Amino acid sequence: MALLEIENLTKTFGGLRAIGGVSFSLEKGMIVSIIGPNGAGKTTFFNTLTGIYKPTEGSIKFNGKSLVGLRPDQIAARGISRTFQNIRLFQEMTVIENILTGMHVHMKQSGIDTLFRLPTFKKEEKEAEQKALRLMKYVGIKGDVGNDLAKNLPYGAQRRLEIARALAADPLLLLLDEPAAGMNPQETEEITRLFRRIREEMGITILLIEHDMRVVMNISENICVMDYGEKIAEGTPAEIRSNTSVIEAYLGRGAVAGQHEEKIA
């Protein structure tokens, strides 16, 4: 059984068909990328998968159970965490507090425990803070910045903080929406190594949207290509690199014709 199974996923906004009948499956332990030109429907796909949008048609099954109709927090509790295309940190909260917010779906203490700060609450709170510190270091946030406001971190560290917050929920599946956006080449290389570590050391399956083809081709075991809300190709990096439908979607029909002319010549 695939970890994630999507059949005929469709999402419309009025007369606009943002996702049109996409079917997709993801095996446990893989790193898979979703690529496509701007406006292809990639982020809408993530938003529908995580309960921000309700699908117009189709099914989404995770670990064999349907996610359709569940709230984002319920889906997170099932084992899916995500980052966003535009950084969505709590800017006026500290680094540690941001990571702690990712743990709320698994916190066990009742409102009474929290209100009166009973020993069980204090114990869980201390354990959570220690875990947050470990995650901060794991994703590569350097320095003693746990009590600094998130807004004061450099851009690359804010990206890493989003990943730490997502990992705090102990996901089975991590969704990354353009995680390398705005990073310099060194930061991109470092974040790519982090993704491999997350899969290999934590056993987390990764599905990412990314425009940096160096990242996509270096890290992906499989690639799904979307264009105008539809899946137009799926395969290994080598297969996608030479797929004429993909080349046309990115570069236009002239590029495909030129490629064919070169082969003929």
Structure description:
The protein folds into two domains: 149 residues, P-loop containing nucleotide triphosphate hydrolases (Rossmann fold); 75 residues, no CATH class. Helix content is 42%, strand content 22%. It is built from eleven helices and ten strands. It starts with a strand and ends with a helix.
Number of strands: 10
Number of helices: 11
Question: What coarse outline follows from CA principal-axis ratios?
Answer: globular
Q: Give the SSE string.
A: EEEHEEHEHHHHEHEHEEHHH
Q: What is the CA-CA span between the terminal residues?
A: 46 Å
CATH superfamily of the largest domain: P-loop containing nucleotide triphosphate hydrolases
The CATH topology of the largest domain is given as Rossmann fold
Largest sheet: 6 strands, mixed
- In the CATH hierarchy, the architecture of the largest domain is 3-Layer(aba) Sandwich
**How many domains make up the coordinates?**
2
Low-confidence stretches at least 5 residues in length (pLDDT < 50)?
Answer: 260-265
SSE layout:
Blueprint: E1 4-13, E2 16-26, E3 31-35, H1 42-49, E4 57-62, E5 65-66, H2 72-78, E6 80-82, H3 95-101, H4 111-115, H5 119-138, H6 155-167, E7 173-177, H7 185-202, E8 205-209, H8 213-219, E9 222-227, E10 230-235, H9 237-241, H10 244-251, H11 253-264
Parallel strand pairs: 3-8, 3-9, 6-7, 7-8
Antiparallel strand pairs: 1-2, 1-4, 4-5, 9-10
In short:
The chain has eleven helices and ten strands. It is of the alpha/beta class and 265 residues long.
